[in-house]
Amino acid sequence: MGFEAQELPDGSPSLIKDSAGSRWTPLFRKTCEFESQIFFKVMMNLIRNPNINSSWLFRADILVEKDLSQQDVTTDSAVTRPTILYFEDMHLDKALVRKLIPRNTLRDQPLDQTCLIYHGSGPGNVERSMVIYKPHVSSPDDMPFYHPKVQGIAFLHEWSADDEGSVSIHYHFFDDEDRSPKLVGTALNLLSVLHKHGEGTKKGYTKRVHHDTIIPQISVQNTYTRLKQKYARQLIQTWVEVTDPSKHVFEDLSIAAFLMELWAQMYKDSPFPGFVDIGCGNGLLVYILRKEGYSGWGFDARKRKSWEQYSDTISDEPEHQESLRQHVLLPSVIDHDPSTRYGNGEVIYDVDSTNLIHDGLFPEGTFIISNHADELTPWTPILATISNCPFIMIPCCSHDLTGARFRAPAPKAQNKSPSAYSSLVEWIKNIEKDCGWEVETEMLRIPSTRNTGLIGRKKSSSSAVDIQEVIAKYGGTEGYADNVMKLIQSNPRGH
Questions:
Q1: pLDDT digits (tens, 9 = 90+) for 155-179
Q2: Domain span at residue 241?
Q3: Total count of domains within the chain
Q4: Could you tell me if 267 and 135 lie in one domain?
Q5: Is the dihedral of CA 241, 370, 349, 310 positive or negative?
Q6: Could you tell me which residues are beta bridge partners of residue 97?
Q7: Each residue's pLDDT tens digit, 239-290
Q8: Do 320 and 395 share a domain, yes or no?
Q9: What is the C-alpha to C-alpha distance for residues 437 and 458, in angstroms, rounded to an integer?
Q10: Among 89, 303, 424, 462, who pairs with 408 as Cys (CB 3.0-4.6 Å)?
Q11: CA distances for 245 relative to 54, 220, 287, angstroms
């Protein structure tokens, strides 16, 4: 059942009185079980993260934040001043100015908006708390698409001495604006989100997913916006794979933006060492990074149609090799008989007599990218340890060290049964730890449910790692060569 609230009919008396005489029209009211502290906590989170309410928005940049309990806002010397409003029986505690940043700045402009925090009292010893959104525009025509065409929005929380509460939403309409169904529907949605988050907090809900723990959100999103404006249209129009171009283009642009900001942090005082994308799929990520000036290359067991337009020649290599290459990874740490022949249909491969084989050894310091690399994912921290290379893994489908599909064991001491993906992520983390890496986790802002980024750029200790011992601990490699050689003629993976 959807969210239901009491709709207050047109002409209902205003519940809040603007000292300047402006009318604030009440639209919806809903009983609640959370007190004012939770109301303010939820509202501050919504102020800082407007994307919770609107998928059209990236974020909010806080331009001004003033605690007004001990000072007058008129002393503020900021370039962007908050728009101050006063209400009867309400005390202004805090003023913020946020800049709402849309996802598509070519279509919609950012919007400055004042957010005001109040407390006060009402009839019958009712505690009242309120948050006002006041956009910095003078007419509905100036309002961007993602914001309701109203002069202001008020969220009112009331809490009685009997521990009974309610939340309500109010609009300050423009003079010539009517109570349109769209505006009314938006008000109901805004109140629904506030109520849901308030009740969830009351019941002890804690956020499980934390974004932007390694790189600031603003840096990645700004870079992503630039890349999207520069490349997205052309990449989608020239897509030659059978997969959905929108998903893959926007996903790889997002990953590229994160990597570029990560590398800016890692290599601010040293030259970029180059990258290798193992299991590079369609090669789009390699293409974007190289277009942005980062040296590197990628390989996959199968050549893709798109390689013809994404690959270029690496001129500083002795053999002038292409940036996208067909290789099957047979790590140097796997013992194999050079005379062994691996069959795949009518094709027979001698392991050491074909240039398709790569031994997984890279120049020290090369940054390894393992983006939905499937069979190569669990090998990534092992390869990084052997060559002493930093890396990022974004796990997708679950394979063990033999290259076979399997379901990773559930982590111990879990209160509930974990998903197959979360089990895979924890299993991969354990391999990373056993290889001596300090595990850093970032939930990437990409259009995929497989969005866990596992980063290894620091060693947890200086002790030597017995790679063969690690490999044995996680099931060994028997059958690996047979499994990966079959990839040469198999259907391509999705990325």
A1: 999 999 888 899 999 999 997 667 8
A2: 217-488
A3: 2
A4: no
A5: positive
A6: 64, 114
A7: 999 888 988 999 999 999 999 999 999 999 999 999 999 999 999 999 999 9
A8: yes
A9: 6
A10: 424
A11: 24, 22, 15
